[in-house]
C-alpha cells in the first residue's frame, strides 16, 4: 500500500509540476514578463511588475520543486495563495468554467497544492532523501529512551523486591534476638531455663527442719519447727 501511495504521489507531482512549469514558461517566453506585468495592471493586481516577476519564476521554480519532491509542504500553500489571487483578480467575474474564463482551472491547481502539502511528497522525493537521516536519528533516540525507561522500571522493581526481602530478614533477626535475650537472661542469673523446667516452690523437710540444698536454699538457716500438736494447741489457745 505504501508503494502504491508513493507512485500516485509521484504521478500527481509530475503532472502538477509540469503544468506550472508550462504556464511559467509561457509568461516568460511568449508573454514576456513586461507583457505579464501590463496584463496584471489591467486586472488591478497590486504592484504588477513585482507580481509578474514573482508569478513567473515561482511557477517555473515551484513546478520543478514539486516534480523533484523538494519542499513540497512549503510550496503547496504558496501555490494555493497565488492561485487564489489569480481567481480573484482574473476570473471572479467570469463564472466557474474555464471556457468562459472562469476560475475552475486555478482552483484545481490551488487545491492540488494543498493536497500535496498535506500528503507530503512520498518516498520518491528529495524531501524523503534529505529528511531520512534526521528521521533515523530521531527513531534511534526514541528507541534508546524507551530502553532506558524499561531498564529503569526493571531496576525499580528489583529495588522494591530487595526492600521487602530485607524487611523479612530484619523481622527474622528481631525474633532471633528476642530468643537470645531470653537465653542471656538465664545465663546471667546462673540458671538455664527451658520450657520443661519445674518452677515449683522449694522442697522443705518439715520433719528434720532442713531445707533442700537442691533448691538453692541455705541448709544451715534457722528454721522454726512446728509439730501438729503445737499447731493444734496454739490454735486452741
Please explain how this structure is put together.
A hairpin with a 4-residue loop joins strand 1 (204-205) and strand 2. The chain has helices at 2-30, 32-43, 48-68, 72-91, 104-119, 126-188, 228-236; strands spanning 204-205, 210-211. The chain has 237 residues and is mostly helical. The model is unreliable at 171-195, 204-209 and 224-237 (pLDDT under 50). Strands 1-2 form a two-stranded antiparallel ribbon. The chain is built from seven helices and two strands. The longest helix is centred in the middle third of the chain and has 63 residues, at 126-188. The chain has a domain at 2-127.
Structure, briefly:
With 237 residues, the protein is mostly helical.
Structure characteristics:
two-stranded antiparallel ribbon; mainly alpha; 2 strands; 237 residues; elongated; 72% helix; disordered C terminus; 7 helices
Give the rounded overall mean pLDDT: 78
Task: Quote the distance from N terminus to C terminus.
Answer: 125 Å
Strand order of the largest sheet: 1-2
Low-confidence stretches: 171-195, 204-209, 224-237
Shape, principal axes of CA atoms: elongated
- Taken in chain order, the helices and strands follow as HHHHHHEEH
Strand residue content? under 5%
**Main β-sheet description:** 2 strands, antiparallel
Structural class: mainly alpha
What's the total count of β strands? 2
Count every helix, treating DSSP H or I runs of 4 or more residues as helices.
Answer: 7
Amino acid at each position: 500500500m505504501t508503494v502504491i501511495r508513493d507512485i500516485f504521489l509521484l504521478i500527481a507531482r509530475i503532472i502538477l509540476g509540469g503544468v506550472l512549469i508550462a504556464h511559467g514558461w509561457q509568461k516568460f517566453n511568449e508573454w514576456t514578463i513586461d507583457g505579464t506585468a501590463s496584463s496584471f495592471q489591467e486586472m488591478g493586481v497590486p504592484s504588477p511588475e513585482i507580481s509578474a516577476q514573482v508569478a513567473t519564476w515561482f511557477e517555473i521554480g515551484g513546478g520543478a520543486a514539486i516534480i523533484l519532491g523538494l519542499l513540497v509542504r512549503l510550496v503547496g500553500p504558496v501555490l494555493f495563495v497565488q492561485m487564489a489571487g489569480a481567481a480573484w483578480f482574473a476570473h471572479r467575474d467570469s463564472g466557474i468554467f474555464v471556457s468562459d474564463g472562469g476560475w475552475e482551472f486555478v482552483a484545481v491547481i490551488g487545491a492540488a497544492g494543498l493536497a500535496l502539502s498535506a500528503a507530503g511528497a512520498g518516498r520518491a522525493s528529495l524531501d524523503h532523501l534529505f529528511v531520512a537521516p534526521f528521521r533515523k536519528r530521531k527513531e534511534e533516540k526514541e528507541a534508546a529512551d524507551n530502553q532506558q525507561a524499561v531498564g529503569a522500571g526493571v531496576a525499580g522493581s528489583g529495588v522494591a523486591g530487595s526492600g521487602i526481602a530485607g524487611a523479612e530478614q530484619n523481622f527474622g533477626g528481631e525474633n532471633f534476638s528476642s530468643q537470645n535475650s531470653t537465653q542471656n537472661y538465664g545465663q546471667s542469673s546462673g540458671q538455664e531455663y527451658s520450657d520443661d523446667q519445674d518452677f515449683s516452690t522449694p522442697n522443705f523437710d518439715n520433719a528434720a527442719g532442713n531445707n533442700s540444698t537442691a533448691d538453692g536454699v541455705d541448709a544451715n538457716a534457722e528454721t522454726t519447727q512446728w509439730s501438729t500438736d503445737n499447731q493444734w494447741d496454739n490454735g486452741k489457745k
